[in-house]
Amino acid sequence: MAGSSETDVNEINIPCTPCEKLEWFRTKFRPHFDEWVFGPIDRLTPSRDALIGFVFMACAIDYLAGFRWGASTEKNVKKAYTGFIEEFFPVGRYDADGLYDSLRNGLVHMFTIKNKKYGLVHNKSDLHLKSDKAGHLILNAEDFRNDLVSAKERYFETVESQPDRLDKLVQRYDRDGFLEAWPLEL
To answer: Which of 130, 77, 74 is nearest to 101 (CA)?
Structure first.
């Protein structure tokens, strides 16, 4: 993508001391994450394009899970993804394995809801987490987004308060980087 962002996370190298890492996380990483990941989610979930919002949200969980995991998630993707949901989403509200299988693997990779477990809606808060007559669990985009934002905030709080969590995030960032705008030179 071309353009520039006031919160470009990559404009400096990651500092080495714990205090410098925390400052980098607070002033560069976190605002950049909110702009580039949650900005589109916030625009999509209440719109007619809420299905794409669900795709982004499933990807955002995967992304956050990778930063939480730190090391490569190769051969541990499910464990990282479900672990993030189990640790940071509201307790007992979501089936982590179901979200992994139906949304991450189904919606993101096959553009379908695997096992037809979920029904996806938007602007219908009264239906969130209720079952329809066919047995589909209904996910309302805005409510799911709100729970994802809360999960992200809880995770980021642990990153700020637990140096080992910050180190894992930095480890993942050092290895894989972060999406950013690159100026086009034609």
So the answer is: 77
